[in-house]
Amino acid sequence: MADGPAAVVPEPLRTPRRMHAGGILIEALRSLREMGIPLIIAIVVGAGAGNARGLLYGVAGLVLVVVTGLVRWYTTSWSLDGNALHLRTGLLSRNEKVIPRERISSLDTTQGPLQRVFGVLELRVQTPGGGRHAEIVLRAVSRRDAETLRRALGHAAEAAPTPDARLRLAPGTLLVAALTAPQLGVLLPIAGGIAAAAQDVMGNVSRQTFDGLPDTVGQWLLVGAGVVALAWLLSIAGAVVTFAGFEVVRDGDRLRTRSGLFARRAATLPLSRVQGVRMVEGLLREPFGLATLRVETAGYAGQGAVTQTLFPLVRRRDAAAVIERLVPALAGSLDALEPAPARARRSYLIGLVLLAVAVCALIAIAWRDAWPAIPVLLALAAALGELRFRAAGWRLDDGRVVLRSRHVGRSTLVASTRRLQEHGTRQTPLQRRRRLADVTVAVGSRRRARVRHLEASTAHRLLGLLRPS
């Protein structure tokens, strides 16, 4: 939403205008990314015919890419009138997208290497109900046009914040954040695919390294170690590229973030859209008392890691102070939670141990040589169940609800009770017999937080307290 009354729309913005001329090349490269795989296939097939057909296909493809970029630039125009922002695209089929001025919540900018060459910005227009992608993306807008549009929409320029309202990620902290970035689960499949392609090459190495083990066991151990190492390296690189130079500022009723090594992104998030903050302690961070702070928002859930990050890495003991500085409405303690009852410990253990027993049975049948892993898996399942029991807790005070739980890493959600999208209890037959129940809440992004195996009476009492009065 605008920060104040809408300014008079300057006449240049009322007239449909195209992007900066550098947008021709930017759109051409975008077309190249979209057409890259078919183009490569055509070149390879043509080259395989033993003549110049592959070169011909390559030249024709590059010409098509340039023409496509020119057409996209020429047929894209935008304008702003007293009521809405208009985007017109298309050559044969003309499309127009209209966004009412009052629905525009933020204008985010990104400046990649190519935008830097032309001195332009990529402008992303966001609305509160937006999905994964921005409603309007203008890939080459001059700084002057971007600032004029911002003023015309009533979005104030960035003010000089107080020191307490600005936080920067130091280079040393960035390195620690990258080394402990909890992205292995996302990158393991990618790394696994790369490792699988190299498995034949590593076969001889594995036999020499693991001479005392069966060939299949040695190969799998080496491939598994390689996959984990590769995923970790990819995670480190991704974190550095994404969060280099990270800075967050509380500017009045907005959070402004800047981040990025190659593509510098500036994003704006109205505080009115922040419905909760989640403190995430991954496996590599929890032992060192470190955590990531993420925002739970209405309408911005799919906008990427930077927009969802309040601060990439904080000491756990400082998390409450950082939340107070940046999101004062959610200020308060994240500790001294009401735990799950002691008799719930068995409920936390049984499910995981039974799952581990089933997995161990399959291992014993399919891979007898791996029997030493069975007691290890059982011990790990019991340890994780105990950690889940110890992590579970809740707190309700000053219009805030705090829920803490654990899957593998520990997660703590603090949210405004007035902003919860839904809340409820769940009770299985076994829980009913043991007089236990789960409590679940959901924020605007539809992300949930659940604390399992509370006293049934406590769960129902908490549910009553969370109901709007």
Characterize this entry briefly:
The chain is α+β, with helices and mostly antiparallel strands.
Structure overview:
The protein is of the alpha+beta class and 469 residues long. The protein has helices at residues 11-14, 23-48, 53-74, 113-118, 143-152, 171-179, 184-197, 199-209, 215-243, 305-308, 319-326, 345-366, 373-391, 429-434, 456-466, and strands at residues 77-80, 84-89, 95-100, 106-111, 120-126, 136-142, 166-168, 247-251, 254-259, 264-270, 274-281, 290-297, 309-315, 338-339, 393-397, 400-406, 410-416, 422-426, 436-442, 448-455. It folds into 3 domains: 11-152, PH-domain like, CATH 2.30.29; 171-243, no CATH class; 332-469, PH-domain like (Roll). The chain is built from 15 helices and 20 strands. A 7-stranded antiparallel beta sheet has the order 6-5-4-10-9-8-7. Helix 2 (23-48) runs antiparallel to helix 3 (53-74), helix 7 packs across helix 9 and helix 8 packs across helix 9. The protein is globular, with a radius of gyration of 27 Å.
CATH fold field value of the largest domain: PH-domain like
Binned, the helix content reads 40-55%
Radius of gyration: 27 Å
Indicate the CATH architecture of the largest domain. Roll
Q: State the CATH class of the largest domain.
A: Mainly Beta
Number of self-contained structural domains: 3
| Alpha-beta content class | alpha+beta
Q: Name the overall outline.
A: globular
Largest sheet: 7 strands, antiparallel
The overall average pLDDT, rounded, is 83
Count of discrete alpha- or pi-helical segments spanning 4 or more residues: 15
Portion of residues in beta strands equals: 25-35%
Q: Which spans have pLDDT < 50 for at least 5 consecutive residues?
A: 1-7, 198-214
Spatial gap, N to C terminus: 28 Å
The strand line-up of the biggest sheet is 6-5-4-10-9-8-7
Count all strands and give the number. 20
